[in-house]
Amino acid sequence: MGTGDVTNGLAARYSAAFAVYLADRSELALGAAYDLGREAVKAQLSVLDVADAHHSAMRDVRAGDDATLSAAADFLRESLSTFETVHRGYIEVQEVARLEHEYVQQLRALADASVAINSSLTVEAILQLTADTARGVVHAGRATIAILAQDPRHRPLTATSPPRLSDGDAHPARISAHLTGRGKELGVLEVVDEHHRVFSARDEAILTQLAQLASVAITNAQLYERERTIARTLQRSLRPGALPPVHGLSAAVRFRPAGEGIELGGDFYDLFAAGDGAWTALIGDVQGKGPDAAAVTALARHTMRAAAAYESRPSGVLRLLHKALRDQTGDEGRFCTVCYAHLRVGWGEVELDLACGGHPLPLVVHPNGRVTPVGQLGTLLGSDIEPQLTDVTVTLGHGQVLVLYTDGVTEVRRRRQEVFGHRELVALLETCAGLPPDAVAERVETAVLAASEGRLRDDVAILAFGPTPQPKETDG
Amino acid sequence: MGTGDVTNGLAARYSAAFAVYLADRSELALGAAYDLGREAVKAQLSVLDVADAHHSAMRDVRAGDDATLSAAADFLRESLSTFETVHRGYIEVQEVARLEHEYVQQLRALADASVAINSSLTVEAILQLTADTARGVVHAGRATIAILAQDPRHRPLTATSPPRLSDGDAHPARISAHLTGRGKELGVLEVVDEHHRVFSARDEAILTQLAQLASVAITNAQLYERERTIARTLQRSLRPGALPPVHGLSAAVRFRPAGEGIELGGDFYDLFAAGDGAWTALIGDVQGKGPDAAAVTALARHTMRAAAAYESRPSGVLRLLHKALRDQTGDEGRFCTVCYAHLRVGWGEVELDLACGGHPLPLVVHPNGRVTPVGQLGTLLGSDIEPQLTDVTVTLGHGQVLVLYTDGVTEVRRRRQEVFGHRELVALLETCAGLPPDAVAERVETAVLAASEGRLRDDVAILAFGPTPQPKETDG
Amino acid sequence: MARDTSERIAIESDADVVTARQRARALAIGLEMPSTDQTLLATAISEIARNITTYAVDGRGEVLIDLVRDARGRRGVRVIARDEGPGIEDLERALTDGYTTGGGLGLGLPGARRLVDEFDIDTGPGKGTTVTLIKWAQRG
Amino acid sequence: MARDTSERIAIESDADVVTARQRARALAIGLEMPSTDQTLLATAISEIARNITTYAVDGRGEVLIDLVRDARGRRGVRVIARDEGPGIEDLERALTDGYTTGGGLGLGLPGARRLVDEFDIDTGPGKGTTVTLIKWAQRG
Ligand SMILES: [Mn+2]
Ligand SMILES: [Mn+2]
Ligand SMILES: [Mn+2]
Ligand SMILES: [Mn+2]
């Protein structure tokens, strides 16, 4: 602090000013001591430099009488008064620093809480985290958050921190902040403490900030919950369910829509009782993926279920579906492929009429390991051209399994290279001779998922069935 | 600061210690000056008190020789050294306070940004706000945020602040923070400034905190967007569309699902060409509201559209729908009411066969202002009992309008009090004589919304139609 | 608080500041205020007078100095400094020791505030500044 | 940095602190260090020695004082204070002038740090504390 030059300059000026003061003892001369001290502080000289300057001045006057000593005391005191100002400022600034540091701690706690609160997807979790944060960040005894019901059908929600109430004060100190979302009142966040507690303006500011961020998180969670409920419920309601048990028929299905968080795609399948005591088994693929395609699968399934009550020829049902797809209003046209089978289940065998509208032909796995396609290729449904469809009759005997599948099974690509195609499927099925339909479907699904490395680029559906083995067959 | 007693005590002890030092000039005696000064600081005495104590000691020794003055200088210096420590601390703590205050400003900016960022529902808006905040909060020249594509079908996204790039430094100073969501890498947030800029550890901490909160907001927005897309797309795809134009028929529809953010409920309607050149008009209400009911409306509409291709008797179509509802797998049974009309549109008149499955009977508005129900009440569809349904033939002539509606129109309650019911509907329709179907539907909807004070408790659907007025009719 | 005496000193130059210091010191001596407190009072006057000569219009203002007595009979010196200057826009900042801008040394108004027993300031953009301070003769 | 001389002083009582101060002052005078800096050096030694007598096991430790010279030929007095005490758990806090806990006066280690040109501390729970400080004879 300070350099020798400035220090020496100080000593000389101090000595001269002191000599003036000794001569006239005037306020003007004394004011010079104040000026010197103030300059020393501004030049960041040390208080020790002033002490040394004082002593060199004393050496210069070389007098020890009371009057001189008294004047010296006055002069030194005056020259140190600015140092005293700074000294007192130290204690004050230390308090400022402490308060700012406390504020930093609160704001950091708030920032951490913000991340945690916004990471919560349920309103309940947000409320509890907010109450806990409120209590912690203002060091209070208890915090409560309450939000109104969004809707007359819902209940209001509250959370308290700590969860269990103590008896508490009859007249506690309290501060609160309103929760608002998109211009509407959401609820209130309140903090209470013992009655002698005085909450600071900063505590209120922090609570308000917390209420604000909690409001946003609650609003987001409510919006998310609403859309998620709609999305989940619709997808689950539209998705084909488990296969019904059919006497004499063993059937299995595997169904995997592509896309994270998606439960329903453009692939579909169905197995249901047709009007005439027979059964219908079908698989299909709507052009495209995701929810747009999914809505069309509902149309396809419901249409074919209704048509099957009136119509036993597969080609007839598919023609009606073609018309229904063409009649769709609003949406731009959607194409669809379907493989439709009308089944008469007998004793150890299944006779089926089969039509394929633009769909890959199903494969029969024979007990000897041979794999053969059945049916005849037909036209895509829903397009401009009247579909060409052919009904083919097939009988599945003991140990034969028919595998219906969508193109997601045979067009598995990785880095633009087909890694599982028709050839691989046939080769795999050749190893499935004698296996029941569920095992066959399982093997196919496993192979496809492995080839896709867990990331499907298209929906995958597999429907496999055959006559149930009849234990008495060879005995009877 | 300090009291007279302590000050006087200081003066006496100072004088005594100084006398000792004058006698032996030892380090031990000099150390006493340090101790006195330190005690004075701890007792929060003023530096002026020390100066005064010094001068009373000088008065006591009453000597002005060089040796004494030199010893006095040593002793005063030593006694002031602790004050110097505090003085230096002031400057240091002031810097600490300034830095803490700056940190407070950054954290407050971060808290504000957190609210703004989490209030944004699109990833693009979040990215821009994050880049702007990053640049502002660390006072840098430019900030860039980039996130990877979630899915091979999507593009990566970036945002820059300011949006336009300046030429910039060839070797700028830079700091960055990773964005991660649910354990996966999302992208990176980077800040650059002129090459001489030195980013502090606090700048890095702030950037990391910002990256963290942005990551959560991005993840939430992606999740929300996904669910919202599914919900929107499915609802729009399942929702019945606009009415097709039908030569000779004037028809209008009003449709309002209950519930905020919901686009599709349990009410439905349809108007489509039946198989035999005739048309089908229908309205229905699935038990319950919201997405659960909505999926069943798809089943109902698609089933009836398919059945209408084979079946012209309304009761036949409704029986098939009953069966389809009963066959539904997975879901617990859902009931449904439908009013179904098979229309033959002629020259200035419409002949219709009508069946009502558990649905309120439609009302005819006559040109003279009379309002009469038509059709015969039938049984709810989808329940355990085989429905009782009756086909009734009705002819609508010039100026007659048939109004089909769901119970949401006639069961408007407010505070458990019915405020708009069947009686009010009939009274309203009596004022609609001579109005075209669209005006009638409009009036009914307006009355229902007014009675509900804008908050529907049930879905509302209204389908009104009648023969198109034939201008040549009377001339021909 | 009863007023004993009063003197009004126009502040236009450094010489006027000396007059004010002297007047205050004379009153303080009359109250037998300790010499260290006399020094602190004089320093506080210098700091607020400096505020006038530095910031007020034409560097002009006035200082009123008088003796006061509180309800408990305690006596002290009161100094009121007024100017018609631009006023202080951000008072909190002007009094928080300059730490927000860094490197302040805590002199000026915040320094003066620390040296006296009571300190009050009335200011605002365009309305000038009035500083009132009191140093009691007996310590609390 | 070349070592010129070295002296080891056991710190067990206040008398030992005086010895250390004296030794350091003698070396400082030999380097013609200004008297104000001599005082600051002695004060720093008192503060770190006080740290030993207050916190170390049995209040014991040792101080090494020697002359050092840096690469540019500048000479100074170096003081190394060691103890086998419990060590300092939260060093940052011990050095941040007590402002986090409020009301500290900035003496002790943070005070000593401010009075010298170089200051280094090596400590940790259970490993004792070593403080090294240097005061250069010529100002930077
Ligand atoms: Mn598809
Ligand atoms: Mn596909
Ligand atoms: Mn309903
Ligand atoms: Mn209803």
Automatic annotation (TrEMBL), chains A, B:
SUPFAM superfamilies for this protein: GAF domain-like (SSF55781), PP2C-like (SSF81606)
Gene3D superfamilies (alphabetical): 3.30.450.40, KaiA/RbsU domain (1.10.1240.30), PPM-type phosphatase domain (3.60.40.10)
Residues of the signal peptide: none
Keywords recorded for this protein, A-Z: Hydrolase
Keyword Ribonucleoprotein: no
GO molecular function, one term: phosphatase activity
GAF domain boundaries: 49-228
SMART domains the UniProt entry points to: GAF, PP2C_SIG
Superkingdom per UniProt: Bacteria
PPM-type phosphatase domain ranges (all copies): 249-467
InterPro entries assigned to the protein according to its UniProt record, in alphabetical order: Bact_Sigma-Reg, GAF, GAF-like_dom_sf, KaiA/RbsU_helical_domain_sf, PPM-type-like_dom_sf, PPM-type_phosphatase-like_dom, PSer_Pase_RsbU_N
PANTHER family in the cross-refs: STAGE II SPORULATION PROTEIN E, STAGE II SPORULATION PROTEIN E-RELATED
Protein name: SpoIIE family protein phosphatase
Automatic annotation (TrEMBL), chains C, D:
Keywords, comma-separated and alphabetical: ATP-binding, Nucleotide-binding
Coiled coil regions, renumbered to chain: none
Residue ranges of every copy of the Histidine kinase/HSP90-like ATPase domain listed in the record: 36-139
A Pfam short name: HATPase_c
Molecular functions per Gene Ontology: ATP binding
Protein name: ATP-binding protein
Native source organism of the sequence: Solirubrobacter ginsenosidimutans
